[in-house]
From TrEMBL:
Pfam families: tRNA-synt_1b. Gene3D superfamilies: HUPs (3.40.50.620), Tyrosyl-Transfer RNA Synthetase (1.10.240.10). Its EC number is 6.1.1.2. GO terms for cellular component: cytosol. This is Tryptophan--tRNA ligase. It comes from Alloalcanivorax xenomutans. Belongs to the class-I aminoacyl-tRNA synthetase family. The lineage of its organism: Bacteria, Pseudomonadati, Pseudomonadota, Gammaproteobacteria, Oceanospirillales. GO terms for molecular function: ATP binding; tryptophan-tRNA ligase activity.
Length: 332
């Protein structure tokens, strides 16, 4: 069975290791198996950056360069800009009439993000309704598979609720439901061990990180506070260094051996961190080099983005017309 894949990121900064392990790695593999679209979600980025639109605008090409650097091929994956697809805004408006405010407020992902951003009573309307916008993104491409972190599962659930409501109103199977694809490590903690990796929390290691930045980040990583002497038995649960080794080291047997040694005692934190740093340096060096080449040619980046957005505009326009016809609305 061939799936249609839709995924994307908000361009509010460079992409980081959390994005890579969460879905970027899967996207590179999936583009060889299924039709795939990656959406640079600039309009969604504005839902909590409306007061500072430059933060979004200046990172659109940064994010595109990150995609290309990790191996996304514009010949096999459609790369497009959310704000360049007018059908998405219309679909969002249609769906907004089928979703209640109370349902949006109950969305666990929205609740968690509102709390983390400390909006209080000053929640931007666009932020509260972004699950509807995300439903429009997914359904506009008739996507059936969406690579996400496990914190985004409520968004997939709400998208499928919208699909069922639209199909009920239309009296036909107009839209298709989707399912989530969770990566090997669906959520990566920050280098400080607190919460998930996030640009806004300042605990992220970006894909274009320098050798020095990587070394500094690994040295700061949280291990087992009870592991005071090398000979002491240590814990691997909640130990950020081992979490990263599980996520990124290609030799699972080696990591398993390190864990066993650490747990019985006799293995120092510095030795484990050395293995992790070597792993991350090897992973990120070629990504960093490719990224530097791509970002140096902004004209080519714009050409790739324009071509992908034009193709996506035609595809999403068909879904919008189908919905209008089903709803009995004129197409002018």
């Amino acid at each position: 069975m061939t799936d249609k894949i839709l995924t994307g990121d908000r361009p509010t900064g460079q992409l980081h290791l959390g994005h890579y392990v969460g879905s970027l790695r899967a996207r590179v593999e999936l583009q060889n198996q299924h039709p795939q679209t990656i959406l640079i979600a600039d309009m969604q980025g504005l839902t909590d950056n409306g007061h500072n639109p430059a933060k979004v605008a200046e990172n659109i090409l940064n994010v595109l360069a990150d995609y290309l650097a990790v191996g996304i091929d514009p010949q096999r994956t459609t790369l497009c800009l959310q704000s360049g697809l007018p059908a998405l805004a219309e679909l969002t408006q249609f769906y907004a009439n089928l979703v209640t405010v109370s349902r949006l407020e109950r969305n666990p992902t929205v609740k968690a993000e509102i709390a983390s951003k400390e909006f209080g009573a000053s929640i931007p309307a666009g932020f509260l309704t972004y699950p509807i916008s995300q439903a429009a993104d997914i359904t506009a491409f008739r996507a059936t598979l969406v690579p996400v972190g496990d914190d985004q599962l409520p968004m997939i659930e709400q998208t499928n609720e919208v699909v069922r409501k639209v199909n009920n109103v239309a009296g036909q199977e107009l839209l298709v439901e989707c399912r989530a694809l969770i990566g090997k490590a669906s959520r990566l903690p920050g280098v400080d061990g607190k919460a998930k990796m996030s640009k806004s929390l300042g605990n992220a290691l970006v894909l274009g990180a320098s050798e020095k930045d990587i070394s500094k980040a690994v040295k700061k990583m949280y291990t087992d506070p009870g592991h005071l002497r090398i000979e002491d038995p240590g814990k691997v649960e909640g130990n950020v260094v081992f979490t990263y080794l599980d996520a990124f080291h290609p030799d699972e047997a080696l990591v398993a051996g390190l864990k066993e040694h650490y747990q019985r005692g006799g293995l120092g934190d510095g030795q484990v961190k050395k293995v992790l740093e070597e792993c991350l340096q090897e992973l990120l060096a070629p990504i960093r080099e490719r990224r530097e080449r791509f970002i140096a040619d902004k004209g080519e980046l714009m050409r790739i983005l324009q071509a992908g957005t034009q193709a996506a505009r035609e595809e999403t326009g068909v879904v919008l017309q189908d919905l209008k016809k089903a709803f009995g609305l004129p197409i002018l």
